[in-house]
Write a structure and sequence with these properties.
Elements (H helix, E strand, L loop, with lengths): L1 H13 L3 H19 L7 H17 L6
Helix pairs in contact: 2-3
Length: 66
């Protein structure tokens, strides 16, 4: 039972792309660090999200033939 719950949580958090899950954790961590320094951190999460989307799509796109 516990194993099933853990696997369900893993599947929900990581989903199909581990890169996006890693980016979400990084965005939360970086935002916390920047906010703890007393700086405005509202802009950091959207920036990381855009970078993660580009990173994810780049990994999923087929290689172009030259």
């Amino acid at each position: 039972m516990i194993r099933r719950v853990a696997l369900a949580v893993w599947d929900f958090v990581v989903g199909d792309d581990w890169r996006l899950a890693l980016a979400a954790v990084a965005a939360i961590g970086l935002t916390a660090i920047v906010a703890a320094l007393g700086l405005s951190a509202w802009w950091l999460a959207p920036l990381v999200a855009l970078a993660a989307l580009r990173w994810s799509l780049r990994g999923a796109a087929p290689k172009s033939r030259r």
